[in-house]
């Protein structure tokens, strides 16, 4: 039977107290809805419908180009009403899987199990918590069969004591769902058309309601508040940390690492506390990352050490390099083997050859630096003239004295020595010392200025 997925994502998320539509709030750097879509996609359905309403344009814009079928719910009259907007697009014989856009961590495995158990009836996902505050409670009859779901706001105290709660995920045949949905009314505390009423209606009509229980509650937990979002973020990150540890990565603290993307590590990689990895990051064997570093789309080759407080972005780092503390690699930084980039050094769109060093306070932008070059403290490339960018070439074995100002376009030929404090605006000859600064003079008959004495009257 063809599978069609409907994701309910039209709600505002009042409890977030945010101008951003709830499903665009992020876990691990990606919108909640993106996580749900991923889970749906892994089931290879015929179609994924997203019911949007509140902040609809913004939500759609976040997923341009994605193969999704957008269905508008002009007024948010409840989850049942939301599903009703999508059903006309789905063939009657199809199996419909309904997902809540604010339940981001559900695993494909659980959904597959749900689809297997749905059969001809209805299947729902539930979980258990000692106090499932806010969630719909699952009511069962004396024989343990599911009778209905009662929303927290409508539940009597005895019902609120029930530990089993509905996770906002169900599956069933499209035609039968449409029939049950037609009977849903809005006589409840919130005056909404609850999708959860479908369960009671189906059970009353004799349709079997089967249950798939999620053992770990956070897999199916919903995000309704910033607090719940923060808890799920940690749960997600902790799961990633465990995977890294299992793969042999040494984490200083499994609660203090954030992976917002894909982190691939070689053998014996060591990661200190409070590091953030974004996009695609690849760390080679024995790479060590110091505390409080941020790496975004970076490749680091074996045996390189990144010291504390470094920010590396869209960069490639060779083997055996020493980066930081307080280094900044900006997009297009490519370092060869054994390069040293020290504190307060910024590299942008530049290649640095093997064994070269810039150990303190330097800026290299749009530069081509050869091998074994020493860049003195305070040296900068003046790559920008206010209108366009120009390149600086520093060939192999150059020594750039401290505080040199290299005005691009300029070429420092092989083996050049540049005197400290020079402003270099012309190409230099190979193997010579170039000094471009005022000569030092001392005035022997100089005397210090004296204060004028006040005149007496
Ligand atoms: C819902 C369930 C509750 C369950 C919980 C699990 C209902 C009535 N209640 O409650 O039993 O325990 O999820 O997380 O279904 N939405 C729309 N249109 C609407 C209203 C909501 O698209 O008119 C969307 C929301 O954007 C959200 C999802 O449906 O993604 C769930 O809505 P929400 O208001 O968060 O329902 P809960 O109160 O959490
Ligand atoms: Ca919710």
Can you tell me about this structure?
There is one protein chain. The radius of gyration is 32 Å and the shape is elongated. The protein has 457 residues and is an alpha/beta fold. The protein folds into two domains: 218 residues, Spore Coat Polysaccharide Biosynthesis Protein SpsA, Chain A (Alpha-Beta Complex); 197 residues, Hexapeptide repeat proteins (UDP N-Acetylglucosamine Acyltransferase, domain 1). The mean pLDDT is 97. The protein contains eight helices and 35 strands. The termini are far apart. Bound molecules: uridine-diphosphate-N-acetylglucosamine and calcium ion. Calcium ion (CA) binds next to loops.
Largest sheet: 21 strands, parallel
The coarse silhouette is elongated
Distance between the termini: 112 Å
| Strand percentage | 25-35%
Going by CATH, the architecture of the largest domain would be Alpha-Beta Complex
Give the names of the bound compounds: uridine-diphosphate-N-acetylglucosamine, calcium ion
What is the helix tally? 8
Question: The CATH topology of the largest domain is what?
Answer: Spore Coat Polysaccharide Biosynthesis Protein SpsA, Chain A
Gyration radius from CA atoms, angstroms? 32 Å
Flag low-confidence runs: none
CATH homologous superfamily caption of the largest domain: Spore Coat Polysaccharide Biosynthesis Protein SpsA, Chain A
* Helix share bin: 10-25%
Q: Count all strands and give the number.
A: 35
CATH class type of the largest domain: Alpha Beta
């Amino acid at each position: 039977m063809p599978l069609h997925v409907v994701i309910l994502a039209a709600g505002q998320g009042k409890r977030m107290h945010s101008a951003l539509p709830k499903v665009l709030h992020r876990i691990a750097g990606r919108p909640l809805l993106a996580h749900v879509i991923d889970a749906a996609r892994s089931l290879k359905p015929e179609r994924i419908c997203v019911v949007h309403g509140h902040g609809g344009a913004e939500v759609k814009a976040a997923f341009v180009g994605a193969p999704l079928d957008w269905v508008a719910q002009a007024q948010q009259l409840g989850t049942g009403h939301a599903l009703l907007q999508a059903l006309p697009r789905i063939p009657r014989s199809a199996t419909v899987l309904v997902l809540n856009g604010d339940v981001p961590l559900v695993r494909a495995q659980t959904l597959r199990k749900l689809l297997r158990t749905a059969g001809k009836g209805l299947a729902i996902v539930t979980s258990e918590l000692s106090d499932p505050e806010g969630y719909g409670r699952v009511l069962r009859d004396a024989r343990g069969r599911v009778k209905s779901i009662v929303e927290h706001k409508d539940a009597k105290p005895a019902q609120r004591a029930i530990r089993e709660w509905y996770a906002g995920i169900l599956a069933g045949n499209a035609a039968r769902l449409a029939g049950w949905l037609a009977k849903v009314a809005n006589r409840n505390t919130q005056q909404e058309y609850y999708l959860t009423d479908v369960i009671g209606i189906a059970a009353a009509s004799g349709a079997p309601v089967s249950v798939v229980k999620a053992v770990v509650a956070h897999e199916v937990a919903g995000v309704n508040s910033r607090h719940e979002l923060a808890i799920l973020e940690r749960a997600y990150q902790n799961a990633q940390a465990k995977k890294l540890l299992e793969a042999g990565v040494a984490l200083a603290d499994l609660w203090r690492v954030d992976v917002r993307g894909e982190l691939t590590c070689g053998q014996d990689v060591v990661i200190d506390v409070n590091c953030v990895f974004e996009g695609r990051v690849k760390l080679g064997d024995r790479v060590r990352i110091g505390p409080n570093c941020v790496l975004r789309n970076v490749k680091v080759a074996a045996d390189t050490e990144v010291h504390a407080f470094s920010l590396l972005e869209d960069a490639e780092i060779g083997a055996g390099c020493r980066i930081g503390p307080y280094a900044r690699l900006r997009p297009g930084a490519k370092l060869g083997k054994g390069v040293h980039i020290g504190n307060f050094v910024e590299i942008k769109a530049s290649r640095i050859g093997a064994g070269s060093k810039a150990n303190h306070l330097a800026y290299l932008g749009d530069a081509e630096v050869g091998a074994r070059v020493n860049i003195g403290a305070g040296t900068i490339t003046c790559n920008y003239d206010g209108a366009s960018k120009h390149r600086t070439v520093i060939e192999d074995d150059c020594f750039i004295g401290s505080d040199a100002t290299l005005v691009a376009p300029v070429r420092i030929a092989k083996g050049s020595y540049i005197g400290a404090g020079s402003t270099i605006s012309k190409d230099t000859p190979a193997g010579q010392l170039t000094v471009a600064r005022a000569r030092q003079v001392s005035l022997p008959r100089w005397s210090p200025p004296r204060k004028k004495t006040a005149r007496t009257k």
